[in-house]
Amino acid sequence: MKIGIDISQIVYGTGVSTYTRNLIKALLSLDKDSDYVVFGGSLRRRNELEAFLTGLKGNVSGKVYPFPPTMADILWNRLHVLRIEKLVGDLDVFHSSDWTQPPSNAFKVTTIHDLVPLRFPQYSHPRIVSAHKARLKHIKREIDVVIVPSDASKEDLMVNGVSEDRIRVIPEAADPIYKPAEKKEIEKLKRSHRIKEGYILAVGVGPRKNTERIIEAYEKVRAGRNLKLIILGHPYKRIEQKSGVIFTGQVDISKMPTYYSGAEALVYPTIYEGFGLPVLEAFSCKTPVVTSNTSSLPEVAGDAAEIVDPFDVNSITEGIKNALNRKKGLISKGLERSKDFSWEKTAEMTLEVYNEAKK
To answer: Cβ–Cβ contacts within 10 Å for residue 195, how many?
Structure first.
């Protein structure tokens, strides 16, 4: 088979980037019989796409086309013109990205990681909401198989009109870089933030990430404790700076395992996630997790985390306290839980989807 995969999203450092990078590498390691064509579009970040393509090994060729995401949205989501074969040649399977839906003559597969722009448009830029609405119309009309990472995302997709028989649930996994950091690296990080004792960690900022309730819960927990709260991200205008709360700004992915490894707990009571990779990232770094009872998060965490009501500050507070008191047990459970997820498994299940093109 000749399989084409759009990699445009890898330059953005998000969960979609983690998925795309690791899936392609795992597929190339697993599947020696197919020929892969990986491609992406960008004006400003073509070098990053080309560097990724250069590092791939196996039956693979690559191409970077010179137009930006805005043009891709217009061409493929709104006008729905220019078949992908015009850029990369004939394909048996075309696996499209999280952003655009080009027309194609091939067996068409796409991955929808979450439906945040449709379920919570108030948390997304209007242009992103518009692009996802346009893309969903083409998905419902043309796509042969839609991959989602969780049963929760599957339910969301069905509510939005995609039939169950076209949906495949394929869980994702943490990037292999997530493993316990060395003690000296943790101490160096703590010194850089002037932290003498411990800290708890929150990943991401904004209303959907529940930042304000996390800070409220932290203020209740820190009474009698010398404990800081590190939040990975930039503060936004509704957030009042509180004592003990540290916003890091943007953090390079190479430093993320150290932030996880040094934390007393990851506090991740988000309102909605299509999968929630930070839960598995923390598990892999031997960090206890506090997370929500909503969307996909209970699926990912299993019984290895403190599960809380993200709309109740007292519930989050108790979850943090319990995680601090049960640290050893949660670390053990989290490590075991993380073994249930791997990119090899994700690639195997994805290849089964591609093989449906032969039927």
So the answer is: 18
The structure tokens 């890091």 sit at 248
Q: What is the pTM of this model?
A: 0.92
* pLDDT for the residue 137: 86
Q: Are residues 235 and 312 in the same domain?
A: yes
What residues make up the domain containing 157? 2-172+342-358
**pLDDT per residue as tens digits for the range 28-50:** 999 999 999 998 887 778 888 88
In a domain, 177, yes or no: no
Alpha helices in the chain (DSSP H): 15-30, 46-54, 69-72, 85-88, 116-119, 126-142, 151-159, 183-192, 211-221, 256-262, 277-284, 297-301, 313-325, 327-338, 343-355
State phi, psi for 233 to the nearest 5 degrees.
Answer: 145, 180
- Asked which of 127-136, 221-230, 275-284, 349-358 is least confident by mean pLDDT, the reply is 127-136
Distance, in Å, from the CA atom of 284 to the CA atom of 301, rounded to the nearest integer, reads 12
Distance CA 3, CA 356 (A): 12
Clarify whether residues 132 and 158 are in a common domain: yes
Amino acid letter, 253: I
Q: Which residue has the tokens 């952003």?
A: 99
Q: Same domain, yes or no, for 10 and 158?
A: yes
- The answer to whether residue 213 is domain-embedded is yes
Q: Do you know the residue count of the chain? A: 359
pLDDT at res. 151: 97
Q: Retrieve residue 32's tokens.
A: 């020696």
Please state at what angle helix 313-325 crosses helix 327-338, rounded to 10 degrees. Answer: 90
CA distance 119 to 253: 28
